[in-house]
Design goal:
6 helices; mainly alpha
Length: 136
């Protein structure tokens, strides 16, 4: 985590830079929860994690979360959707890819603002809603 007195103005960072951070934050949250709550083999841990961190999974998650986001968070999401590059992941539509970038931008933005409680709150909603589906 960044020190509280860092000189980085999060508002000046590109959504893609925020998504870069958010991708790592989300990956750690998913892996941590899978290890704590399941007793899966490494191969199965990976395949279950992919369902959470794939563009398709993140797109679905973002759609679920949107009504629960503040106006400020929704603005970050919109910036993330608008910033995605033209290329997309192999197994994702352009819309899914833009949504996943937006979701990761949100997590990166929250993380860089030291808003761990909000990240935890959103992740708990995600886990409650999708763990059964994504772990099947």
């Amino acid at each position: 985590m960044l020190p509280e007195n860092h000189n980085c103005d999060v508002r000046e960072l590109s959504p893609v830079a925020l998504a870069f951070v958010g991708d790592g934050v989300y990956e750690v949250l998913v892996r941590q929860r899978l290890v704590i709550e399941t007793r899966l083999s490494p191969g199965k841990l990976h395949s279950r994690a992919v369902k959470f961190v794939s563009a398709a999974g993140q797109s679905q998650i973002l759609e679920f979360l949107m009504p629960m986001l503040t106006e400020e968070e929704q603005a970050v999401v919109q910036r993330g959707k608008n910033s995605s590059k033209a290329s997309v992941a192999k197994h994702a539509t352009p819309q899914q890819y833009r949504a996943s970038t937006a979701f990761e931008s949100l997590l990166g933005w929250l993380y860089l603002q030291h808003r761990q409680e909000r990240i935890t709150e959103l992740f708990e909603l995600i886990w409650k809603e999708y763990s059964e589906q994504f772990l099947a």
